C-alpha cells in the first residue's frame, strides 16, 4: 500500500518535518506544491508566531523556540 498525497498534504508534511528538525525551515520550492500564492500568507502567519515567541529566525530561515516545540502540531496547522 502506498498513500498518494495531494499537493496540499505534501506541503503540510514538508513544513511539519522541516520545523521539527534542529536545522529548522529554510526555503521551499513553492511552485512544486502549487502553493506559490500561499507563500505570502504563510510568512504573514510566521511573523505572527515570531511575535508570540513560537519561532525565531530571519526571512525564510525559521526555527521553533522551546515554547514552539511544545505546540508544534497546532502551530503547523495554523501555518497552512
Automatic annotation (TrEMBL):
The residue range of the signal peptide is none
Native organism is: Candidatus Hakubella thermalkaliphila
Q: Tell me the ranges covered by the HemN C-terminal domain, including all copies.
A: 5-71
Domain of life, per UniProt, equals: Bacteria
Q: What is this protein called?
A: HemN C-terminal domain-containing protein
Amino acid at each position: 500500500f502506498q498513500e498518494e498525497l495531494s499537493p496540499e498534504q505534501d506541503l503540510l508534511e514538508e513544513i511539519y518535518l522541516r520545523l521539527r528538525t534542529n536545522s529548522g525551515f529554510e526555503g521551499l520550492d513553492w511552485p512544486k506544491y502549487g502553493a506559490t500564492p500561499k507563500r505570502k500568507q504563510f510568512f504573514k502567519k510566521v511573523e505572527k508566531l515570531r511575535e508570540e515567541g513560537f519561532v525565531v529566525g530571519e526571512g525564510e530561515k525559521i526555527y521553533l523556540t522551546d515554547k514552539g516545540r511544545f505546540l508544534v502540531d497546532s502551530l503547523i496547522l495554523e501555518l497552512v
